[in-house]
Every structure is written in structure tokens, then in C-alpha cells.
Amino acid sequence: MKKMKHILNGFMALAFVLMFAQCTDQKAADNNNSQVTATVPGSMKIAYVEIDSLLTKYRFWNDLNELMIQKEENIRTTLNEKAKDLDNDMREFQRKLENNGFASRERAEQENLRISQKQRDLQQLQEKLTNELQMENQKNSLQLRDSINSFLKIYNKDKGYSLIISNTGFDNLLYADPAFNITDEIVEGLNARYNPEKK
């Protein structure tokens, strides 16, 4: 009896799978028919933007990059100065230790603890500043993307492209007719919209 029940359950499961497959095949066929009619050759208007060129010519991105390079340089200078100061303290400590320059063992231990704390503080500062720089880089990338996307929405109202593709080297687009390249138009429009704050 149990065997018969398992066989019936197996047949029911198989029948269900076959019904589902037929429905899916029918839907796929319907979708393919509708796609063929929707994408008649020549009905899609496509363009592409060379991101590398856009980034070198977009003043907003260049200004952001200059600010980030300056911040990175400031961080490097700050960390180098503190590291140099720490190195001097360590050398002085070593010199005093070798020449019995401490009044007592406790005083030498105190100085050693102070230098160790200074070293930990420097490491924490380096991590903190590095994290802040990374977060700012991410924020800048989002700003760039938002800036380009918002401009493309306005730009495309008149142009009516079905698809605008980004191209970075050979990552996304292996070949495209240069007639579909709208990079210069986009850069010109983005730069026209960009008004840097007066310093």
C-alpha cells in the first residue's frame, strides 16, 4: 500500500513538473514573440560614453581629485612628522638607556610606556585618517555618479536614446561605431552645468 502511495505521489509530481514546463515554454514563446516585435532593427537609439575621457575632461571630477590629492598630501605630511617625532623619542630613550641616563628604573619604565602609547596613538591616527579618506572617496564617487545620471536624464529628454552605455577601455564595449560616441556632448553639458564655489 505504501509503495503504491509513493508511486502515485511520484506520478503527481511528474505531472506537475510537466504542466509547469509547458506553461513556462508558452510564456517564453509569448515573450520571444513580443520581444521580436518590440526590438525591430533600427527602432532602438543607442549611444555610448567613454568614461576615461569623461573623467579627464569633467571639471567637477578634476576639482574633486585635486582636493583629494591635497588632503592625502596633508595626511602624509602629518603622519610623517609624528613618525619622525616618535623616532626621535625612541632614539633618545635608547641613548639614555645605554648611558644610564635615567634617574631610576621606574623613570625608564615610565618613559618606555609613554613612547609605547605614542606609537599606539600614531597607529590609531593613521587608521582614522585612512578610513576618513576612503569614506570621502566613496562619497565623491557617489556624487560623480549622481551628477552624471541626473544630467543624462535631462539630456536624454531631447535626444531620446533607448540606451546609453558606459565604456571603460575594453571592459564593457568591445566595438562601437564612433558615430554613436556622445562623450564630448556629455562633457560639454556637464561642464556647462558645473559652477564651482568661489574661494
Chart the SSEs and their pairings:
Layout: H1 2-38, E1 46-50, H2 51-57, H3 59-98, H4 105-159, E2 163-167, H5 183-193
Parallel strand pairs: 1-2
Précis, in short:
This protein has 199 residues and is mainly α.
Q: Give the radius of gyration.
A: 33 Å
Shape: rod-shaped
- Helix and strand composition category: mainly alpha
Largest sheet: 2 strands, parallel
Strand order of the largest sheet: 1-2
- The portion of residues assigned to helices is over 70%
Q: Tally the helices: what do you get? A: 5
Distance between the termini: 89 Å
Mean pLDDT: 80
Q: Which stretches are low in confidence, meaning pLDDT under 50 for 5 or more residues running?
A: 1-40
Q: Would you count the extended β strands for me? A: 2
What is the string of SSEs from the N terminus onward? Answer: HEHHHEH
Residues in β-strands, percent: 5-15%
Written description of the protein model:
- With 199 residues, this protein is mostly helical.
- Helix content is 75%, strand content 5%.
- The chain is rod-shaped and about 90 Å long.
- It has five helices and two strands.
- Helix 2 (51-57) runs parallel beside helix 5 and helix 3 (59-98) runs antiparallel to helix 4.
- It has a two-stranded parallel ribbon with strand order 1-2.
Features:
199 residues, 2 strands, 5 helices, mainly alpha, disordered N terminus
